[in-house]
Amino acid sequence: GTKWLHKVRRFQGEAFCVKSLRSCGAIIVGKTNMHELGLGTSGINPHYG
């Protein structure tokens, strides 16, 4: 994600795929971190670590 975009479109809830996984008993235990807008290869985002 990008730091300024949170003001444009607020989080509304879980994605359909996450809801489907949870309904089948999956437990979400982590998250990924990537470049702003997915435009890099190192996975380091200066805003979020």
UniProtKB/TrEMBL annotation:
Which superkingdom, per the lineage? Eukaryota
Tell me one GO molecular function of this protein.
catalytic activity
Record-annotated Amidase domain positions: 13-49
Q: What Gene3D superfamilies does its record include? A: Amidase signature (AS) domain (3.90.1300.10)
Question: What organism, scientifically named, is this protein from?
Answer: Nymphaea colorata (pocket water lily)
* Organismal lineage: Eukaryota, Viridiplantae, Streptophyta, Embryophyta, Tracheophyta
Q: Which SUPFAM superfamilies match?
A: Amidase signature (AS) enzymes
Q: Give the Pfam families listed for this entry.
A: Amidase (PF01425)
Q: Which InterPro entries match?
A: Amidase, Amidase_dom, AS_sf
- What name appears for this protein in its UniProt entry? Amidase domain-containing protein
